[in-house]
Design brief:
The protein has 357 residues and is an alpha+beta fold. It is 22% helix and 37% strand. It contains seven helices and 22 strands. Strands 1, 5, 6, 7, 11 and 12 form a six-stranded antiparallel sheet that branches. Strands 2, 3, 4, 8, 9 and 10 form a six-stranded antiparallel sheet that branches. Strands 13, 14, 15, 16, 19 and 20 form a six-stranded antiparallel sheet that branches. The chain is globular, with a radius of gyration of 25 Å. The termini are far apart.
Length: 357
């Protein structure tokens, strides 16, 4: 078969495959900030998109069949990344956040598309509600879940629209197949996206998640909270059960054994686990420590020094878990996904911990 005939047959086959995939696939996610920056650079300098010129002054030709195949692959990859569990929903939320401007190039939202968690086959419907995992990501130590609740009961929907209380999910627990349980680290109230459709986020932080595999997500109740955030009223009793499968993912772990001064006392930083979305510390203090949780950790005590010379105080949500033996765990959830390749070192209580050789 000669070249022109082969090219024509390949072209027709690729066009037909692309047509079918586009019809079946959801719309691709919007371009990220990083992709938009690349596009602006290409528009400013179109020649940078192509191969460098050869010694003869001419650019090498790319056969049409391989160029077509590359375009098809790129389109299909983008379409596939748009489905549930792909990380696309979380990427859009992060890109629209106030913190996107604060983090600048230190953030990398594109990596969320590679952290997508495989979720169950479909939603659960019961008691006039449809509940589903809208999106989920896992970075090696923290899992983020976006849960969508659709109200199918007209009377319940009318009640929700008449009141101005906060709507939230009750206790949410993740149970791995091997036993045990993971409770939520933080959660948000349900926010109305469309009439009768609400979305909430919750996160679970544990290094053990990396070996959890297939998990069962149990949501206990649908709860009404008064505007002043007092005791909630249960509107619908669960549990509702969903599933998700977490892929083993490696996290960066250091065991520096270095002493930091906290509240006038010497505490030893025993371990530090860093992933794009979270930081986990374990510290050991002196016997009978007098330091309070506020003394032990504040956001100003943590700084990331970047390879380009910039510094970043990450902010975010933190919790401290003290033990009776003067040991302490500190967990921090970042407001943006960090580009770990850009970090030179972490500064904690004046001590510098390099991440690169």
């Amino acid at each position: 078969m000669d070249g022109p005939v082969f090219d024509a047959m390949l072209k027709n086959a690729l066009e037909e495959a692309l047509r079918q995939d586009i019809e079946e696939a959801p719309a691709p996610p919007p371009p990220s900030r990083r992709q938009r920056k690349r596009m602006r650079r290409l528009l400013a300098d179109p020649g940078s998109a192509w191969a460098p010129e050869t010694e003869t002054g001419r650019r090498p030709r790319t056969p049409a069949r391989w160029l077509a195949a590359a375009v098809i692959a790129a389109l299909l990859t983008g379409a596939a990344a748009a489905g549930l569990g792909s990380g696309g929903w979380f990427r859009q939320v992060y890109e629209e956040s106030y913190w996107a401007r604060e983090y600048g190039d230190a953030a990398d939202t594109d990596q969320l598309l590679g952290m997508g968690v495989e979720t169950g086959a479909g939603p659960v419907e019961a008691d006039g509600l449809r509940i589903e995992v809208l999106d989920a990501v896992f970075d090696g130590q923290i899992a983020l879940f976006a849960i969508r609740v659709t109200v199918l009961d007209p009377e319940l929907l009318e009640q929700l629209q008449a009141e101005h209380s906060l709507l939230g999910l009750g206790l949410t627990t993740v149970f791995p197949e091997g036993g045990g349980a993971f409770g939520e680290f933080s959660s948000s109230p349900l926010e109305e996206e469309a009439e009768g459709q609400y979305t909430s986020q919750f996160s679970i932080l544990s290094e053990s998640l990396s070996s959890a595999g297939l998990c069962r997500i149990e949501i206990q109740d649908l709860v009404f909270f008064p505007p002043e955030r007092g005791i909630g009223k249960i509107l619908r009793k669960g549990p509702w059960t969903l599933t998700a499968s977490l892929r083993p993912t490696e996290a960066l772990r250091l065991e520096p054994g270095r002493v930091c001064e906290i509240g006038g006392e010497e505490w030893t930083l025993e371990s530090l686990t860093l992933t794009p979305l979270a930081l986990h510390l374990t510290m050991q203090g002196p016997e009978g420590s007098r330091s309070t949780s506020k003394d032990r950790f504040e956001s100003r005590n943590l700084t990331f020094h970047m390879k380009n010379g910039d510094s970043l105080t990450p902010g975010g949500t933190s919790r401290s878990i003290p033990d009776l033996d003067a040991s302490l765990q500190i967990d921090t959830l970042f407001p943006m996904p960090l580009d770990l390749d850009q970090i030179e070192s972490i500064e904690l209580y004046g001590q510098n911990f390099p991440l690169t050789e």
